[in-house]
Amino acid sequence: MIRNIILIICDTLRQDYCGCYGGYAHTPNVDMVAREGVMFTHFLPASFPTGPFRKDILTGRFTFTYHAWRGGWQEKDYLITDAFNKAGFTTALIGDTMTVGSFDSHFQYVDFIRGQGPVALYSVDFKLPLPADENKLRTPRERLQALMEQWVRWRGEEDRFAPRVFKRAHQWLENFGRKAKRFFLMIDSFDPHEPWNPPRYYIDQYDPNYEGDELFEPAYAPSGYASEKEIQHMRAMYAGEVTMVDRWFGFFLEGVKYMGLWDDTAIILTTDHGFYHGEHGLIGKVELDRDGTIIRRWPLYDTIARIPLIIRIPGGPSGERYSVLCQTPDLMATIYDLAGIEIPNTCQGKSLIPVISGKADEIRDITITSHTYVTDKECRCPSSIRTEDWLYIYGGDEWQYELYNLKEDPGQENNILQKNQDIAEELHKRYISWLKEVGCPEVSIDLRSKFNDKPRESLPYAKLI
Fold first, then answer.
1. Is pTM beyond 0.90 here?
2. Which domain-ending residue is among 314, 329, 356?
3. Which long-range contacts (CB under 8 A, 24 or more apart) does 449-456 make?
4. Do 48 and 73 lie in a common domain?
5. Could you read off the pLDDT of 334-381 as tens digits, one per residue?
6. In what order do the strands lie in the sheet with 367-370?
7. Residue 385 and residue 312 in one domain
8. Does 411 score more than 70 pLDDT?
């Protein structure tokens, strides 16, 4: 029996940087869990980005159709923590992601490590030189300098956030987890999300002797402002952050073993999304103005939407890779299955256990990844509709509509919609049918029902997510 479940979310962890997925970042601990467990290569978020993803995690629903980033729960939302609490599990959430402290997640124990957020640090009492041209960094300037003021007070690697998160999770296991009859622990690390600030010895593994602007928290904008050398170093800083996170993830896993929990605890590692490091001519996740206002939501190509999912089940298969299409609500259904708890009818996901056990080859033939629909009446957001063979970008009002043949063009570099509009229109129909199936509000379905391959010329300036 699986007695305990540990779910680790490492924010903004790109699949193609993890060693086990063929990435070039050094991730020996992530790779170890993959060897002892199973990997999913086509796992995609449903709701994008950070906050909406975690609402999907807690409810097992496609919440982008009716939830905004902020705001409370609705009647249709039954949280997985409620089910686990009722079943006698000890439940705990430990992390530094802003969402840990932003809404009631119904965990019995919550440990929120502060400091990563919209930097409630604006009390800067001295000025530090920025490591790059201010116009190449995410503003406002006061926020950047506040971040740097915090960093100079760190005495070493262990003062950074990922080490603190995994050390606190280790402490919780020591004091509570190993004594519990059964537990569900969720660790929510904001790293490797930017700002990328690992010790220099991590960055030098990937780009030693670099001289130039360091885009440790780059401007969210089309990538033309950064040189290829700067983009390459930005990737090195990110890879260094990934490797630092992996080290402290390994520290935590060693604790699981030493405390005798390894043989009856399932370990699940995933993330909420990736990050554009210049791919598709973009840097960031959405376009921001110099005041930090979202002015354009971008399409969600595989760079940002194909995310890692690794599941280690004691006594389960090891070293397997599955290419089945699956999404965030499916992970929740899987966790219910692992715990031996009946999947509630409010959960819209499908368990991956039949795939892992060899009883099923697929659980869904289409996935939808989207920004939230909260601003539909003013401005419709882009969404990505994916099948095994095709990626259709529904541009909404903000982006052109696009179509990619994933067998011939896995990097999504050649938009073939104009020559294959019939395929795009058919995928659009499937998109609308899917929205009806998941109970999307009629107003959003009606606003999306017509296929129109051109974005609007006039848009409201500010967008919401």
1. yes
2. 356
3. 451/401, 451/424, 451/425, 452/401, 453/395, 453/400, 453/401, 453/417, 453/421, 453/424, 454/400, 454/401, 455/395, 455/396, 455/397, 455/398, 455/399, 455/400, 456/379, 456/397, 456/398
4. yes
5. 999 999 999 999 999 999 999 999 999 999 999 999 999 988 888 899
6. 367-370, 383-386, 390-394, 402-405
7. no
8. yes
